[in-house]
Design a protein that fits this description.
It is built from ten helices and nine strands. It is α+β, with helices and mostly antiparallel strands and 364 residues long. It folds into two domains: 2-130 and 273-362, no CATH class; 133-227, PDZ domain (Pdz3 Domain, Roll). Strands 3, 4, 5, 6, 7, 8 and 9 form a seven-stranded antiparallel beta sheet that branches. Strands 1-2 form a two-stranded antiparallel sheet. Helix 2 crosses helix 3 (102-130), helix 2 packs across helix 7 and helix 3 packs antiparallel against helix 8 (287-305).
Length: 364
């Protein structure tokens, strides 16, 4: 714990950067709800920065625009969307969330996640256009496991993987996916070593490799360099990175389930404390790199929020779509109770992940 406290002392600007970053990301998310709700005729009660107690507010057109004392995120209140309230407000009001058709409710609920992706693409495009460390399209062998198919074939650390069976390799996942799909089958690999092409080599990926080695027994890395891209290329790279982050999140449940019961160390997920530590480190690497972090976290929050779990936008969206399929809304009181339980479970998960963050940060 002492190491974590010392980290806070050594990085005094990290806390305000962390709070500004998260508040901006969540404000953009909430703006998606706010804008679509107003466009679809719903009555917005409040657009808030931070969480109560309230410090100040301005009322305009019947909406409170407030600044609150806890400077972390924000929220939008829409009439009739009292998810955790047993006594639902706004029933029968034409401006109520629940008075609108199911498709309008679904649009409002999904708009926050959509804005997270919009924000991510914008800031990532800006980062790549300004000039940041980006993949060059080359995949390099970092390590070779002894007695592995790669070692037998003569692959060495530092080699660049050009192609496999004639298929160009420009990302690590290209090679991983191909050799996994061709386990126990001979593949032909084209390499470069010290800038020169080598004769093609053959290897047989393993269907059941030792833990941590992979089918070929190599550890890969993508070659990067500091580059400033033209806007069209920067936009394409931003969209590609966004897709990669979504793929990594989708693969995370499988990684967590594959951890054995005796696996040591914290799980490979991070919560607020880990994000804070990463923010502090990235802030030392320049504004463009910091923007990349903002984009990646925005994608993460967007994907996690659309999961159909009670208390999240995805959970609310699930109930809206279920009601549309059944042609009637489920009991508002039952739905509110389910969301409240889900919210409590999410808080519990946050505590568990934060404990793992502390263990990771203190070397425990």
């Amino acid at each position: 714990m002492g190491a974590l406290i010392q980290f806070f002392i050594d990085h005094p600007l990290a806390i305000p950067l962390f709070l500004i970053m998260f508040t901006a990301i969540i404000a953009v998310h909430e703006f998606g709800h706010y804008l679509t709700a107003r466009l679809l005729g719903m009555r917005v009660l409040e657009f808030a920065f931070g969480f109560p107690p309230r410090i100040a507010a301005i009322r305009h057109a019947g909406i409170d625009y407030s600044i609150n004392a806890i400077p972390f995120g924000g929220f939008v209140r829409i009439l009739g969307q009292d998810d955790f309230s047993i006594d639902q407000r706004g029933a029968g009001d034409p401006g109520s969330f629940t008075s609108k058709p199911w498709w309008a409710q679904a649009i409002v609920l999904a708009a926050g996640v959509f804005m997270n992706f919009v924000l991510a693409v914008i800031v990532l495009t800006a980062a790549f256009a300004m000039g940041t460390v980006a993949p060059t399209g080359q995949v390099r062998v970092e390590e070779v496991a002894p007695s592995s198919p790669a070692a037998t074939a003569g692959i060495q650390p530092g080699d660049i993987v050009v192609s496999v069976d004639g298929k160009p390799i420009t990302r690590m996942q290209d090679l991983v996916s191909y050799v996994t799909a061709h386990a126990d089958k001979e593949v032909t690999i084209q390499l470069q070593r010290n800038g020169r092409d080598l004769p093609p080599i053959t290897a047989v990926p393993r269907a059941d490799p030792p833990p941590g080695e992979g089918p070929l027994g190599i550890k890969l890395g993508e070659v990067t360099s500091q580059v400033a891209m033209p806007l069209p290329d920067a936009f394409g790279q931003a969209v590609s990175l966004t897709g990669d982050v979504v793929g990594q999140i989708a693969a995370l449940p499988g990684e967590l389930l594959s951890r054995g019961p005796g696996t040591q160390g914290p799980p490979p997920v991070g919560g607020p404390i880990q994000i804070f530590v990463v923010t502090a480190a990235v802030s030392q690497l320049g504004f463009a790199t910091f923007l990349k972090l903002v984009g990646v976290i925005s994608v993460n929050l967007g994907v996690l929020n659309i999961i159909p779990f009670p208390g999240l936008d995805g959970g609310r969206l699930f109930f809206v779509l279920l009601g549309a399929a059944l042609r009637r809304r489920l009991s508002p009181q039952l739905e509110a109770a389910i969301h409240a339980v889900g919210f409590v479970l999410l808080l519990g998960l946050l505590v568990v992940v934060s404990v793992a963050d502390i263990r990771r940060a203190t070397g425990g």
